[in-house]
Amino acid sequence: MAKALYRKYRPCKLCDIVGQEQVTDVLSNSLKQGRISHAYLFIGPRGTGKTSVARIFAHEVNDFPYEIEDDYVDIIEIDGASNRGIDNIRELREKAAIAPTTGKYKVYIIDEVHMLTKEAFNALLKTLEEPPEHVIFIMATTDAYKVPVTITSRAQTYTFRLADSGVMLEHLKNIAKLEGIKIDGTALKIIVKRGGGSFRDSLSLLDQISTLSEDLITVELVEKAMGLPQDDKIRALIEGYISGNLQDLTTTMRELISTGIKPETIAEEMILGIIESPRAELMGLLSKLTEVKAPFAEAKLLVTLSGAVKTAVPAMTKPQAASIGSAPAEKMMEPEKQGSPEIQTAPDSVKKDEKAVGSQNFDWEKFCGVVRELNDAVAAQLMKCKHSISGNELDLFPDKKITRTILSRDNNKRILTESAGGIKVIIHEAGEIPAGEKKDELISKISDIMGGEVKSDGGDNPF
Question: Residue 417: which residues within 8 A CB-CB, separation 6 or more?
């Protein structure tokens, strides 16, 4: 049986490791200088070489020749997920006290160390505090934040990174050449992209694709075999989201799904596309795409993409503006330019007691209704605000910082301005009260103490 590529090309020396020089160079130097620590912690994403480096280091520190299938009694590998209890670690401590059989060191490699229980970590800590001179612990984890600081502080920590796409591409090219795999350069880039910087995943994909054809493996073959949408379709969806064209979005999405491509796969490809070329207007889409999964994945994807139509608010017509705002349509102010949501102050020329034409007819409920039709979340926050209108300005007074933060976002601020018929919208600091409204000092003080959650029920007692 042919050996899988990721096993066949697994490195056997530190100098053979690709893309993790920030780790291997330091370890190599420590070996040359004989400066060996009793504990190491390798952290980083899956498939980046943590376990491979641990095995190589365990062999090189003992001058053992390394073969993938070898078995030395002084190198002990432990799966933290399967041996996570205190009894397992107690047994490890007892055996660790016994001197190595053939090597200079007895090396324990604990994979997924974050899976140990709290009691097991405490038992391991005792050994790390007073380690036998002949013992080395190499711990590996994908979730470093789950490892207690008492453990990390007693170990040398090394961070493994996902491989750079250029480094991975060259690595796969070399292996494809050695294996006699004929593959188009663009098709190889798709494998690099889908591999996500993981050497193991990328080599597994290359292994899978290598059987597609004895002739040249093309982009079309790779996309079909992996059930991937074409790059131009993904770009069309992203651009369609920005432009807010629901018809084009729906048509493109249906075309992809009709060919057997799953909505989850479309979402994944869009995420990868956004990460490659990030833009501020796509950050909202990025967060929602991660939620596209069963059940009803297709519906979730459609709702996510159609969200652009709600965000890209068209300018209101003159009748709409006249029914809500005070300013005549021909004098409507332009929506504010996008930028940092700083508080704006009213110009000196506008006096608070000056009534602009029609301002007295401003309908708050109707205004909130228009906002709700465009974006429910913005409307929900809007309803938490007190308000006042004078001249050509609408002043909003949020009760909490989170409300002000949400309403001040560029797209949301534009929704408010255009829904108000072009009236200038000013969002005040959280807790600020409208001019002329007396602030209840007792409630204010209690509210400050209790984190800003205290309100009045309209009577004498604060709640």
Answer: 335, 336, 423, 424, 425
The confidence score (pLDDT) of residue 344 equals 35
Is the pLDDT reported for residue 357 higher than 50? no
Q: What is the mean pLDDT of the chain?
A: 79
pLDDT band at 359 (very low <50, low <70, confident <90, very high): very low
Which one-letter amino acid corresponds to residue 65? P
Report pLDDT digits (tens) over 168-219. 999 999 999 999 999 988 889 989 988 888 888 899 999 988 888 778 988 8
Evaluate the omega torsion of the peptide bond into residue 295 and state whether it is cis, within 30 degrees of 0: yes
Q: Dihedral, CA atoms, 340, 345, 350, 352, nearest 10 degrees?
A: 130
Task: Identify whether the C-beta of residue 22 lies closer than 8 Å to the C-beta of residue 159.
Answer: yes
Round the CA-based radius of gyration of the chain to a whole number and report it: 31
Phi, psi of 79 (to 5 degrees): -90, 110
